[in-house]
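We close this part of the discussion by returning to an individual protein. Part of our work consisted of pairing the sequence of a single chain with a tokenised description of its backbone. The amino acid sequence and the backbone structure tokens for this protein are reproduced below.
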Amino acid sequence: MLAKYRGFGAFGAALVLLRACCPGRAESMPPCMERRCMIGRCLCLDQAFNSNCLDGARNPHAAAFLYALIDAVPKDRTARVEQICLISKSLRQTYEALHERDARNMTKLLEQVALVTDGYRALGHRVHRIGVTFYDVFMHLAREALLEMDACPSATPSRTLMWFVSSRDVDAALNVKLALAALEAESRGWGLRVVHNSQAKAVVDSVERALPAHCRSRLESVSLASMGINLPRIRRGQLSCLQASKIYFEGTRDTVVIAGGEDVIVRRPISDQELSYTMLGAPWTWCRAPKHKNTDECRFGGNGGFAIRNPAFVAEHGIQARPKVEGFKAWARECGTMHHNDDIYLAIKMNELYVNGTLGRFRPAPYDALVRFAAETIESDDPVALHKTWKYLSPEYTVRQFRKPLLLIRASLGNANREARARKNETNRRQR
């Protein structure tokens, strides 16, 4: 379709857009300079021009097409035109920040967006939230910069970042690289352990390749088979039990952060205050809902998508059976006693200690600390990490929170460019 679009020129493109989006409806539509389907309706693209949505674009026709394309992909009936406008502007700014040489080439930006949206169609994905498209396009635009980023695990780690990957997480290397940079892993003592099943070896290899050559040996790769779980695929319930099992944390340091897949964006380092708590995660909306019968049982817990876990706490109060010692069946039987996902299960254990006055060395986190630490379904002003906020929270919130990662990625590009110029100048000096 892009080839057709370019071939028709500025005026003929309107016909291509109209036919692609609103077949059979041209006669019934009101007069309009440009037409495109938006949120299940056909609106005029000249309205996008007049709204100043993409102010300052050198190519307003391509900008308007981008505006319409972003809206046309997810059939999000709740999205407002203002939200679509915000996302279009943010993606244009992201493109300009990370692709300086082609910053004014809106057609190239359109091609980048089309690569993502065409992928939805090819895979049969049904995207129902405009925020998901924003996240996917942002990561696509940042892909090259993230892979080139000079971000390493620590050579002398005192803490562990554990990242679980499956064969579906083909782009997890991007999230891991951003996490290492945002956490300032090399200077703050964060090691990297990637846990995987047998089918995810290629994903682990991609994470290793994404690391700078001088620190690839610092990556610790741990297979589920080494824990006694010989499954080609691990179900969600089994993974949840594993993350509540002491065997999952064997050989780690005093402080562990667990994460996984492609659903986590890390934004800033973790403070010493946050690291002092036994468990931290994004708080749950349902936990504070009036209809929830016992809000106390989940008051000290948070979502396990990105969470601090004290290995000593899990070793004492988590699942004790070890598949490689007592056998897989013994471990699976004990998993059956959880009745909750790992994050809720451990939160209930923490609350029991608090009620019984037997916390000992363990320190539960108050609600405001949970909110400050991470965001998922509840907004946080400056969280360490976002976990699927693009699915659950407003586009305005997600766009605002992505500004810090964009600045971090942009700064890394500047450093890389300065280093490249320095190497070039040094080479020229030696050749004189």
